[in-house]
Amino acid sequence: MTDEQDSRSSQPVPPILPKPPAAFAPAPVPPPVDAAPSAIRDFLSKRGSGSLADNSFAAVMLLCACSIFAIVLFIFGILVIHSHLSLVAFGWKFFTRQAWDPVSGDFGALPFIYGTLATSLLALCMAVPLALGVAVFLTELCPRPLRAPISFLTELLAAIPSVVYGLWAVFVLVPLMRDVIGPFLVKTLGWTGLFSGANFGVGLLTASMILAIMILPIISSLTRDIMTAVPNSQREAVLALGATRWEMIRIGVLRNSRIGIVGAIMLGLGRALGETMAVTMVIGNHPSIGKSLFAPANTLASVIAGEFSEATSDIYYSALIEIGLALFLVTIVVNAIARLMVWAVTRNAPGQVH
Amino acid sequence: MDFQSKSMRMNNARRTAANYFISGLSILATIIVILPLIAILFYLIYKGASSLNLNFFTKIPAPVGQEGGGMANSIVGSSIILGLASLMGIPIGIAAGVYLAEFGRGKPFATAVRFTADVLNGVPSIVMGISIYSLIVKPQNHFSALAGGVALAIMMVPTITRTTEEMLATVPHAIREAALGLGVPKWRTAVSVSLRTASPGIITGCMLAFARVAGETAPLLFTAFGNSFWSFSLREPIAALPLQIYVYATGPYDEWHRLAWAGALVLIVLIMVSVTLVRIFANRGVLKGGS
């Protein structure tokens, strides 16, 4: 071994490869710089790098993207500034007091919080089972040719403006409530005490019903997206174990999309909390807390819509702006939590993102 | 069936019955959901169609209680406010969407903007209305069409941003890379290549946002305020169709109720046409013939 090492290091390595052909000869020397440039090089060097245009375009687009943040901050800022009087006068107790007396300047938002919560929760109770039923039908049970028309119809429900819902509610739902549904409820469920008192047709229950119709399309279309995002392997696995179709839906699909469905329901809740026009027209507009579901009430949004143009004194205006600020913060929090839940479920899945 | 015990057979029967029961319930739910929609539409057509005549589209409201008025000033006023809102909202929304899709891909800033836009979409429109009241109407001491336009514009921006970003994200990277490889500057790629390719989708997104704000009343309650006469100035209160429907629906006169139904029918027809157009265009895909 030592001999081979010595023999290898003492002599130069003989050439093994043949001489390279002329095509691989070293590159020719480029012409000197001050020779006449080609037309293409001339054109390209005159154009510049374009970095100024790129950077300024990107800066303008960035400014517009920041406008979203600017809008949120602006709304928050201006609401805080203009509710300053009321914040200073009432503090936190504003949301726990039951007064609402514009004449003497005594304001408390508890009746409106009660009205908002009661209408929203009642609307959710009515809308969620129906929305889930529609979503289950459209994703799992519906024959394919019917799927597009029916989903188009449910999305049309979302396109109807709120004032048209209110108009229909005032002229159709209120008489229905007063003459048909109200007496029926008193007869069957009157023992609960929830349906006591005079029934004029306008009140908490009517507002909850029209709200339920309005939040249905949101909950059902989001639930459909979430159910479509569940991979088919889950469905097939449950079916392979011998499940019926409902068991496949319950175990394979609904159990996997529980978080997303909760998120969809919260988004519906967020919409119900802020709904103004239809509720203002049928809720009776009375700042009171009553046990009966027929009683007139007021929500945070409907008191602003109804009384803002009558707010002559500064403290009245400030109290209404403070209610608007509370509405803004509550809907932002509810929507943020709901979006996070929906995003967590649909993150890795195909299908649309809403 | 011989190898199944009696309890197994009973269990299977129970499971099959539960299956049919739930299927029936979900079909029932769908029918209950479709029913109000059809009821509302039919009732609208029934009540509104009889009041739709030439007077409706050409005359301003008659003195209270008198017959023969129309809602022409509301239709024109709505067009002015919506035109103003589109002029302000669409460029900002598309620019923000272009930033998110072309320049800000993958950055946490883009995720934050996307999330904020989604959350802003859920803010009640009355809150936007009172913010713009405090910003524009109160210092100027008068209601104005400009304030109404601004209120609707800030409602359009988040929706248009999100749809523009989604549509631009469907443009294949190969097209952008081809343009960049040919020496087209980045800004020119974004404008002439990506935007042009995704333009059907972006237009449908703008139409969706337009249809959504066309029916909004709450932001206009305290900004545009409404007007019983012709008004074409941006510095004066102006009538708007949803606003007039609200005022007429809650008023005591039968003539007003008639006009409210007719106005609601016109509004619904306009919105349905936009939504249907959106559906037709959305199916055409981003590239001609699909991508």
| Tally of helical runs of chain A | 14
Principal-axes shape call of chain A = flat
Per CATH, the superfamily of the largest domain in chain A is: MetI-like
CATH level 1 name of the largest domain in chain B? Mainly Alpha
Series of H and E elements of chain B: HHHHHHHHHHH
- The chain-level structural class of chain B is mainly alpha
Biggest chain pair interface: A-B, 88 and 91 residues
What's the arrangement of strands in the largest beta sheet of chain A? Answer: 1-2
Describe this structure in words.
Chain A is mostly helical and 354 residues long. Chain A has two domains: 51-80; 83-346, Orthogonal Bundle (MetI-like fold), CATH 1.10.3720.10. Chain A contains 14 helices and two strands; from the N terminus they run ααααββαααααααααα. Chain A has a two-stranded antiparallel ribbon. Chain B is mainly alpha-helical and 291 residues long. Chain B folds into two domains: 6-49; 56-282, MetI-like (MetI-like fold, Orthogonal Bundle). Chain B has helices at residues 6-49, 54-58, 72-103, 108-121, 125-140, 145-169, 173-181, 186-214, 218-221, 241-249, 254-282. At the A-B interface, helix 3, helix 5, helix 6, helix 7 and helix 8 of A face helix 1, helix 3, helix 4, helix 5 and helix 6 of B.
